[in-house]
Write a structure and sequence with these properties.
The complex is a heterodimer of chains A (188) and B (318).
Chain A (H helix, E strand, L loop, with lengths): L3 E6 L8 H14 L9 E10 L2 E10 L7 H5 L5 E3 L5 E3 L9 H5 L6 E3 L4 E3 L5 H4 L6 H5 L5 E5 L6 H7 L15 E4 L6
Parallel strand pairs in A: 1-9
Antiparallel strand pairs in A: 1-8, 2-3, 4-5, 6-7
Chain B lengths: L1 E5 L5 H25 L4 H25 L8 H4 L8 H24 L8 H4 L5 H27 L11 H29 L5 H34 L4 H11 L4 H24 L7 H27 L2 E5 L2
The chains are: A alpha+beta (188), B mainly alpha (318).
């Protein structure tokens, strides 16, 4: 079986926001409605510590495509669902816009798309990845900080990064997220 | 690390639904129990009517809050209906409650201008059938009242909501506001009638006893609310931030004034200190009952709004 997952390597992320722009560009076309910048995925500059021992982290917000997704559990109409590859998607025809998925997501990964009036989210660029392509954000990243692949294939880059200690941030929610983070190297 | 994000997805319309759903279903439950004890027919009819109308208005608020209200029927007819979803379970409870409560109440309400429907409603006005219909509606009604708390109580992402105290708090508040609704409806009716004799006296007596009962329910609610906030104030971060928001933050005016003072402390003090004194039911007491009934309702609505609005998502960060 294929289980899509992503690793975000904060050792190499330079905070250029190319992923954010590529996401908006790609998905505004695939959705047929404006996906605002930073809506499906976002990179925020988080400052840590106090002078002189300070550091900067680029925190990436994105849907974790959980294996046990709370948004799917609470959805009344079955509009939110998981594909065979474990990608969490939304069937717009069935969505009534109750926003239960938005309150239920521990990662605040959904936003309300004003144009379509649906709680839109990252699709792992399913229209691309189901055809063997990479998600737009991964293709656009100049430092290869975002890595995409099959978590069930031990030889894939994502599997190797996970095996070498990439963290499932927020895993204590028990939702089995499939986006992992390699923490940045601290200067001191 | 984490980041706190205040939820803005569910606002005033959902608060109105949580309030009216609880109030209406418990007002009906009270009416059914009075009917079983052969209490005043006027009180039973008024309670059933208030219950059904409140729940229906609540359902309308719920539908209006949808981003696609025109597709609301999918909540029970979707080809991929998810019976694990509490919105589906809640919609079933609301539907069952409304159907059974309307059937139970119809024979009681087909009098006066609606008298022409009597030949129809008399088909199920036998006591056994009525008892069954009312009982089923009452069971669904208690379900609706608890469900308003379960709906948000199961949301693990918002720690302030994710506690068994919340459905209990909403259930107790539903009982309290359901009883207070009788004051708001029946006190003006009694005042417009003049003398409190005959049927009026019977209704006034029933109203007096229900108001007294509400006093004890409110006392219990104060204990539940206090315990809830106390435990939540110890965390996690999303919970303690919510408690601060209610007690000393942006929501403090609504919470402390609306919920605690107007909705709980003053009504409890008036009912248990003044109204419970054993003397004749007088007209002046009806004004008091009407006023404190309104205060309890304001408090109930403010409680739902405050709990919803204080919900923080505690989002994990690297």
């Amino acid at each position: 079986m294929t289980r899509f997952g992503m690793v975000i390597d904060l050792r190499t992320c330079i905070g250029c926001n190319a992923c954010v722009v590529a996401c908006t560009d790609e998905n505004t076309q695939s959705l047929g409605a404006a996906v605002p910048l930073g809506a499906r995925t976002d990179v925020r500059v988080v400052e840590r510590g106090e002078f002189p021992s300070t550091s900067v982290v680029f925190d990436h917000r994105i849907c974790r495509h959980c294996d046990d997704p709370p948004c799917v559990r609470v959805c009344p109409t079955g509009a939110s669902y998981r594909t065979q590859e474990g990608v969490v998607l939304l069937d717009r025809c069935l969505c009534i816009g109750c926003k239960y998925c938005m309150t239920a997501c521990p990662f605040a990964a959904r936003y309300l798309n004003e144009e379509l009036s649906v709680p839109d989210k990252c699709t792992f660029c399913y229209h691309r990845t189901s055809q063997g392509l990479e998600p737009a954000c991964v293709s656009a990243c100049p430092t290869r900080a975002r890595v995409f692949g099959d978590l069930d294939d031990p030889e894939s880059d994502v599997s190797k990064l996970v095996a070498s200690g990439a963290l499932a941030v927020g895993a204590w929610h028990g939702t089995e997220p499939k986006v992992f983070y390699v923490p940045p190297v601290r200067e001191r | 690390m984490y980041e706190l994000i205040r939820q803005t997805f569910w606002g005033p319309l959902i608060a109105i639904y949580l309030f009216l759903g609880g109030l209406g279903s418990m007002a009906f439950v009270a009416s059914y129990l009075i009917w079983r004890r052969k209490g005043s027919g006027k009180v039973v009819a008024a309670g059933s009517l208030v219950g059904i109308v409140s729940v229906i208005v609540g359902i309308l608020a719920l539908i209006l809050d949808l981003e696609h209200p025109e597709k609301f029927y999918l909540v029970l007819t979707s080809p991929k209906l998810n019976f694990d979803s509490w919105i589906v379970i809640g919609s079933l409870l609301l539907t069952l409650f409304t159907v059974f409560a309307v059937l139970f109440s119809a024979p009681l309400l087909t009098e006066g201008p609606l008298g022409f429907l009597k030949p129809l409603t008399s088909k199920w006005s036998g006591e056994g059938v009525m008892n069954l219909l009312g009982g089923l509606a009452a069971i669904a009604g208690v379900g609706v009242a608890i469900y308003t708390g379960i709906l948000i109580g199961i949301v693990e992402a918002v720690p302030f909501w994710h506690t068994p105290a919340l459905p209990l708090l909403f259930l107790v508040s539903a009982a309290s506001t359901g009883l207070a609704a009788y004051d708001v409806v029946l006190a003006p009716w009694l005042l417009s009638r003049g003398k409190l004799t005959g049927e009026g006296g019977e209704v006034a007596e029933a109203l007096h006893r229900m108001t007294l009962l509400d006093g004890y329910v409110i006392l219990f609610e104060i204990v539940v609310l206090f315990t809830y906030l106390l435990v939540e104030s110890y965390g996690p971060a999303g919970s303690s931030a919510a408690v601060s928001l209610l007690l000393s933050g942006e929501l403090a005016p609504v919470f402390i004034l609306g919920v605690v003072v107007v909705g709980l402390l003053i009504p409890a003090a008036i009912i248990l200190g003044y109204l419970s004194r054993p003397h004749e039911v007088e007209r002046s007491k009806l004004y008091t009952a009407l006023l404190l009934g309104l205060m309890v309702l304001i408090g109930g609505l403010a409680l739902r709004y405050c709990v919803l609005s204080a919900g923080y998502l505690q989002v994990p960060a690297i």
